[in-house]
């Protein structure tokens, strides 16, 4: 399978999972973890859906919010994975402790 075919297959699989494909770069959610997707950057926001174990997400933009401790450390960065959908960056393996996408506007 070529690189383009692999990306296309990943995009189709993600679409079937209902996970955002807005970003060309996708990141894994912490192994063995189901993650609550919230309507805003904090646990005070309602749960929109729950990502299944083994999910990968595209990050559209990032914004500061409630500080959360998770498998990948403690952070106040929240990842926007689709319109009105946020997950704490503490649950996403981005390879960085800082921002890796533009700030949400």
Task: Describe this entry's structure for a reader.
This protein is mainly β and 105 residues long. The chain is 14% helix and 37% strand. The protein has one helix at 3-17; strands spanning 26-28, 35-38, 47-51, 56-58, 61-70, 73-82, 85-88. The chain starts with a helix and ends in a 17-residue tail after the last strand.
Quickly list its features.
three-stranded antiparallel β-sheet; mainly beta; 1 helix; 14% helix; 7 strands; two-stranded antiparallel ribbon; 105 residues
List the helices and strands and how they pair.
Layout: H1 3-17, E1 26-28, E2 35-38, E3 47-51, E4 56-58, E5 61-70, E6 73-82, E7 85-88
Antiparallel strand pairs: 1-4, 2-3, 5-6, 6-7
Oligomeric status: single chain
Largest beta sheet, briefly? 3 strands, antiparallel
Shape: globular
Count of DSSP H/I helices = 1
Order of adjacent strands in the largest pleated sheet: 5-6-7
Strand content: 35-45%
Which spans of ≥5 residues are poorly predicted at pLDDT below 50?
Answer: 1-23
**H-E string:** HEEEEEEE
- Rounded mean pLDDT is 85
CA distance, first residue to last residue:
37 Å
By secondary-structure content and strand pairing, the structural class works out as mainly beta
From the alpha carbons, calculate the radius of gyration and give it in angstroms: 13 Å
Helix share bin: 10-25%
* Number of DSSP strand runs: 7
């Amino acid at each position: 399978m070529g690189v383009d075919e692999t990306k296309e297959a990943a995009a189709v699989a993600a679409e079937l999972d209902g996970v955002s494909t807005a970003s060309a770069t996708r990141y894994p959610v912490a192994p063995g973890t189901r993650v609550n997707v919230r309507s805003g950057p904090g646990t005070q926001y309602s749960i929109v859906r729950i990502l299944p174990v083994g999910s990968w997400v595209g990050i559209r933009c990032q914004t500061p919010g409630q500080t959360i401790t998770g498998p990948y450390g403690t952070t106040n960065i929240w990842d926007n994975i689709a319109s009105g959908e946020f997950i704490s960056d503490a649950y996403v393996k981005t390879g960085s402790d800082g921002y890796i996408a533009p700030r949400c506007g």
